[in-house]
Every structure is written in C-alpha cells, then in structure tokens.
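Hi P.,

Sorry for the delay on this. The queue was packed all week, but I finally got your sequence through. Input first:
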Amino acid sequence: MTEMTAGSATPEALFSAPSARTLRKALEIVGWLVMAMLLWTGLTSIFGRADFLMEASTVEYTDPLETFNAFDGRYVQFSFATWAHLIPGLLIFGLGPLQFSRYIRKNYLNFHRWSGRVWLTCGVISAFSGGFIGIFYPFMGVDGQGFNESMATTFFAVYTLFCMYKAYSSIRAKQFGAHREWMIRSWALMLAIATERVMLGILMGTTGVGVEVLFGTTFWMAGVVNIVASEIWINLTRTPGNGNRHWKDLDAKAAA
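Then the structure:
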C-alpha cells in the first residue's frame, strides 16, 4: 500500500514532502549564516586592500616589487586593475544578497532587474581585472608556485563569465528557473574568494605551510567547495516541470 501511494504521488507532492521542506528550510538558514560570514570576510578583504593601496600611494618607490613584498607589490604595480577589481567587488557583495531576496523580487521588480544588470556588469569587470593579475602575474611567478594560482584563476574566471552569460541569456528567454540556477552558480563562484581567505587563514595557522604554497591550492579548494554547495542547493530547490516555479511557493502551498 505504501509503495502504491508513493508511486501515485505527484511530483509536486514528492518535492514538498514534510522531510524535504524541513531540509530546505534548515539549509536556507545555514546558507544565509554562512553567506553573512563570507560577506564579512570579503568586505574586510576589500577595504583592507583599498586601505593598503591608498597608503602605498604616499610612499616613494622605484620598483613596487622591491619596496613591497611579492604578494602586495603586484597590486601596487597594477593599481588600475586592482581598483577595477575592488570597486566592482564592493558592489557585487553589496547587491548579491538582494538579488536572492524573494521579497524584493516580488515587490520591487524594477529594482531587481536594474540591480541585476549592475551586478552582472560588475561581475564581468571584476572577472577580467582580477583575472589579469591572477593569470599573468601570480605573486610567485607563472613558472613557479604561482602556476597553480594562475591556472585556478583562469578556470574560475572563465567559468564565472560563462555562468553570468547563461544567467543573462536565460532571463532574456524568460527561463526563470534556469536564470535562478545560473545566478546561484555565479554568486557561489564570486563568494569563493572569501571562502579562499577563510581556508587560507585556517591552513596557514594550523599547518605552518606558507602562503606561497597554499594560495593557489586554497583557491582550487574554495572554488570546488562553493561549486558543490551551489549544485546541492540547486538540486534541492529545482521545482518539478520547467523549474520556473519557486520552491517556497510550492512548499507554502503544501503546508497550507
């Protein structure tokens, strides 16, 4: 009898079964808490780097790579690209959570659309500017330990650009479910830089391995962890059919 009941259940009923609703709700709370921690980490890094650049601009030097350490010197050497990475990054972290606010999307659709365009534009600028430094000028050199950083930057910059393109093309085609999923992937990749900072700090403090070895490695680790987390969430919240319905709408209907 149980098997017959389960077999005759609609996809919507299976999707919004009590256990599935509970799991999604719990993971949503955990996700927002983790996101808040990563946003704090990312914003702290942005303001810290901006403060360093402003202080460096008051220092007299001939070669920034000789005046500053190998990690910081490249940001001074390519200050334009660095600012082109930091300023859009600030907007990305500021607007990112708003893009996933169901309340804003339902009640302030025009703001959601325009802020989304700004967010995607900043993402493109940040990917190219950050990619320029990380791919061509890793602080340990392309022919040394920096090759790991260079390859990680190349892969994640290209994949981030691809995800943002898919997010934009999906919404233009009114594929709302696909748009949401590609936006989640894009956001997870953008947050990976904050995840990397957390991992880097933990591993440097617990292993004694230097930043020159860990930087590229933690970049890969952070990117993979965030991609896996985003795919888990996407699969848990992909609604039956074309996926255009929001999971909260189905869960609310089932709970009523």
